[in-house]
Amino acid sequence: MKEIDFYRHYLINEESLSKNSVEAYVRDLKGYVEFVKRNKIKYDSVESILSYIKELLSKKYAVETVLRKLSSLSSFFDFLIKEKKIDKNPIVLLDKPKKWFKLPEFLTEDEVKRIFDTVDTSTAVGLRDKVILKLLYSSGVRVSELINIKVSDCDFKRGVIKVKGKGNKERFVPIHKNLIEILENYLHIRHNYLVKGRDEGYLFLNKNGKKLSRVYCWNIVKKYAEKADIKKNISPHSFRHSFATHLLANGADLRIIQLLLGHASISTTEIYTQVADDKMRESLLNYHPRFKR
């Protein structure tokens, strides 16, 4: 389908998305195109989308995966509307059942503290891990942003770190005084114990002096979550969810949280209001005399 090639060009040159993001979109689109060709149905009808959803669910795809694929398709249809290839986006005509939406897994403030307390900072690797965990929680950065931070991106005088988000969009995230102190200690350890040979400038390095991978960071989080006896399914993204949820629960403005997270749309940030609503409801059930269980 030649429109997919045009769409790829559009994502790269006009939306400035990263190579990984572009390929993820294209992969989702090709899966759908194969489906409609196999079933000999129109690609831009509501019925085709519903049939596709049914097939994905029958193959036991997670709800989150189905929603991601629908999001890719919706973006593609919006592009075709701009190109005057179709008149309507069939995705927007669908009602997505509320039960599809799963609230993000997040940690309580006590669970975050328990994880921090398990880290032995007497070693170079331990200190590095402590900085990683604290930065994930106190800034809300994505793991893809964290592993690409360079030493030169840290401005301790201003108390900010520059990160590159989706589409290579830059933003500055504030860091608090305690984190600045531990970061300065880490930089000394990094220079003396982690840098091996040529220093490529990345803030976080493995034992061989190389930039950390996403999987490496995932394993770090899993390791300390298990040591802290956290039973939840925790990943680096759980710290991002916790960052936003705790800010909102303590009175932060949703627009500020949107800026800190680097969300392009406020609607993406609004999912955290559902988490906060659940926490408030739980408080009512536990403590209000009329609601108390």
UniProtKB/TrEMBL annotation:
Annotated keywords: Cell cycle, Cell division, Chromosome partition, Cytoplasm, DNA integration, DNA recombination, DNA-binding
Gene responsible for this protein: xerD
Protein name as annotated: Tyrosine recombinase XerC
Organism listed in the record: Deferribacter autotrophicus
Primary subcellular site in the record, as a coarse category: cytoplasm
Family: Belongs to the 'phage' integrase family. XerD subfamily. Belongs to the 'phage' integrase family. XerC subfamily.
Pfam families (UniProt xref): Phage_int_SAM_1, Phage_integrase
A GO molecular function held by the record: tyrosine-based site-specific recombinase activity
Subunit structure: Forms a cyclic heterotetrameric complex composed of two molecules of XerC and two molecules of XerD.
